[in-house]
Design brief:
Tetracycline Repressor, domain 2, Arc Repressor Mutant, subunit A, 2 domains, mainly alpha, 72% helix, 226 residues, single chain
Length: 226
């Protein structure tokens, strides 16, 4: 990559980072202006159009990057649970929450814009979440620990529960810093991790004892006497 291409890529990423920071400071993406983003990225407004046609295109690119980050974190969590039987659940949860603490912005962006963004962004986020669910379901289907759950519908429902729990945990973890004083963080985080641990144990107890119910046999219509 030439120096010019490298600078162009840096400018593009600076715009994306600026939008993410402004969004996670409590601003809805739709309320952020192009000029605010370029000012935060230390670029002139005209530079924006060298990278994006409009704010919607920037938002869609931000969704792609954020979803890719979430996929990496969820994959790591799934590996710990499903492919390392001796791994401790609490250790796995610690890794998950550390990842959120280190880089909360993608989680905040996707969760907040999933319900409050423009129609185009909401649809794109929903699509990415479905991709996350499908990807996780494929991984679960290859796990020796889930041989009793090989029906595609069961695997997808389980994956959906995992992803929904992860999003709920992420937002709950982030909200601790917003809702409590610094001297309360440690206590509240331990309480939250204990709750997540119990939820995980309940989920995995259900998996270990899972038996798919046989399909209901439709009742035969009563025979009319001849």
């Amino acid at each position: 990559m030439s120096k010019r291409d490298d600078r162009k890529q840096q400018s593009r990423q600076a715009l994306l980072d600026a939008a993410l920071i402004l969004n996670t400071s409590g601003r809805a993406f739709s309320s952020i202006s192009l000029r605010e983003i370029t000012r935060h990225a230390d670029l002139v407004p005209a530079a924006f159009y060298r990278h994006f046609a409009d704010m919607e295109q920037l938002g869609l690119e931000l969704i792609d990057q954020s979803a890719l980050h979430l996929k990496g974190v969820l994959h790591q969590l799934g590996q710990a649970y499903l492919y390392q039987p001796n791994a401790k659940t609490k250790v796995s949860l610690d890794i998950f929450f550390q990842a959120i603490e280190h880089y909360p912005e993608p989680w905040i962006f996707l969760i907040s814009e999933r319900w409050g963004g423009s129609a185009a962004l909401r649809q794109a986020i929903d699509r990415e979440i479905q991709y996350l669910i499908d990807d996780l379901a494929n991984g679960l289907g290859r796990s020796e620990n889930l041989r009793q759950m090989q029906h595609s519908q069961d695997l997808r429902m389980l994956s959906q529960m995992f992803v929904c729990l992860a999003l709920e945990w992420a937002m709950g973890w982030i909200e601790i810093r917003r809702r409590f004083q610094p001297d309360q963080y440690a206590e509240q985080r331990e309480r939250f991790k204990s709750q997540a641990f119990i939820q995980t144990q309940l989920l995995f107890r259900g998996i270990l004892n899972w038996e798919r119910a046989p399909a209901a046999v439709p009742e035969q219509p009563a025979q009319t006497p001849q």
